[in-house]
Amino acid sequence: MEKLNLFQKVWKQHNVGQLENGQTQLFVGRHLIHEVTSPQAFGMLREKNIPVRYPERTFATVDHIVPTDEVNEPYSDPLADAMIRELRKNCDDTGVTFFDVSSGKQGIVHVVGPEQGLTQPGMTIACGDSHTFTHGAFGAIAFGVGTSQVRDLLATQTLALSPLKVRRIEVNGELPPGVYAKDVILHIIRKLGVNGGTGYAYEYAGSVFDNFSMEERMTACNMSIEGGARVGYVNPDKKTYDFLKGKPYSPSLDNWQKSVDAWSSLASDEGCDYDDFVQFEASDISPTVTWGINPSQAIFIDENIPDPHKQSGSEASSTTEALEYMKLEAGAPIKGTPVDVAFIGSCTNGRISDLEEVASKLNGHKVKTGIKAIIVPGSQIVSKIAEEKGLDVIFKQAGFEWRNAGCSMCLAMNPDKLIGDQLCASSSNRNFKGRQGSPTGRTMLMSPLMVAAAAIRGEICDSREVFSN
Amino acid sequence: MALEKITQVSGKAVYVKGDDIDTDRIIPARFMKCVTFDGLGEYLFHDVRFNDQGQAKDHTLNDPRFENASIMLSDTNFGCGSSREHAPQSLYRAGFRAIIAGNFAEIFFGNSINLGIPCVSVTDEERVRLAGIIDSNPSGDIKINLIDYKIHASNQEFAFELRKGARDSLINGKWDPIDELLSKSPEIEKVANSLLYS
Q1: Residue A29's Cα: distance from chain center in Å?
Q2: Taking residues A445-461, what's their average pLDDT?
Q3: What is the ipTM for the molecules in this complex?
Q4: Nearest-CA distance A146 → chain B (Å)
């Protein structure tokens, strides 16, 4: 029998046929929508009088624009308020399930999908959001798409796509203490580049990914887009099935073994072909921090900021541009860079295990005076679990603000924004110019624990030196 | 409705320098608080074009020499980051009908082709030459010919790359796939019914 990788098997199962231009018409089993990239798509359908083909395959939530410090509607931002009302109406009109703010299940779409059991191995999943790759952690093939494609999905449940090559990325060995999934993915992006993944699906594997929890796998898959890949996934295993067991939309327990057998059969075959293979050694990775204006511009906490004079060509000009924007000194240690804001949250690192890890270290520590530090749970369910465990009390006692669920300061479409050229230690996924809401605001990406350490010291530091327990 | 067959794009060009220009830079997130794409053109590259007080900064898109440009030249990995279609929509609504770059981030590329905006790739050396031509003769027309894969500028010719499927979709007026996707209804149903999940 032909040996195939998971990407090839899932692609084959969902292939509707070839389009005239040579692309594949791919069936997408799950479609997730949110308020920012869907209203225009519904508008296009209305204009053409096209119905939603499979409303039961689309699920909606609101995340990008929701304020995290006010609950009552109308929201003080009338534009945000109009967007949530539009989504509510579109879902009502078409029969799409909406995890609204009153449902207790609202949150960042990439946190909600897995926690509801909507994300399952072997599925094709799409959402009008580039961090949809998160769902690849379950062995799903997940695509981030534009709004016209959201329209295509609503109308036909299919996408016109070109096939991808598959690159297997193995990380083997033991991660040193204080090194997290975030550091692993930042390291991969740093080494392979922001556009190193063009034309590829990334299959993550090796002992580090085998040992990762589902939430750690989600953190890594989430940032595949920052390496230019079109898909990122991990083969499903027992951890995947255990995570999904009993979730609201998971297969019923009567059919459980049948589902597990089917899912297992989709994992990449032993000895199958890959278009490319890359390997990393876990012990080489240290806590990682970005210094620039794209996620590949990252260094270990003990390294010095790159010097463009020691580089050449476009690398040197990119470094110069980045350092000018970031107001950082070439060749200086990254450690000790003063921060103004600390943000823990986002679809990358706003899950319960992220919050538990931070809470477990905070004992006796306080956020430094003058630092604004906020923690935004990824969903209302994450928030509820955290509060049941008393994590909110630990955070507040340590001087963090504890907010309601949403995307918040990852992209600052809600009121949570940097002001002026504030520098933010952030557990989010993008450090682009102006990303956190101020055109001159500065972002440094790192793991949640490194953000917490920066909040306590008021500067970029090694979390292992701050938290000795 | 039949779509326009896009076999060539010609017009004035403007060079927006820089590698890795992300979609947040093309259209900052705060301007996405809208339920239609109308009006996005005016926010194109907003935060690099205007200061906090809304005054125009020194940027090629504010340079009157390049007013009414319909072709944008940029560098490598153009359109990386967020999948927001707001980025090509704002380019389109600001009058841009084609983009020349070193290469493109894939989601941006797909979104642009779906709107009928050719995204063509040229080498580093050719970009330098094209930038020189644009700067020395801002009012001169540049022509991108999708039939013969050539850019014509100031009596010079440049070969470009564009994935054949995308190029064919453009020249055959099939760049928006919705009608073809809709036409496969029975095949869609068949795949839907064959899956283990609903």
Answers
A1: 20
A2: 98
A3: 0.96
A4: 5
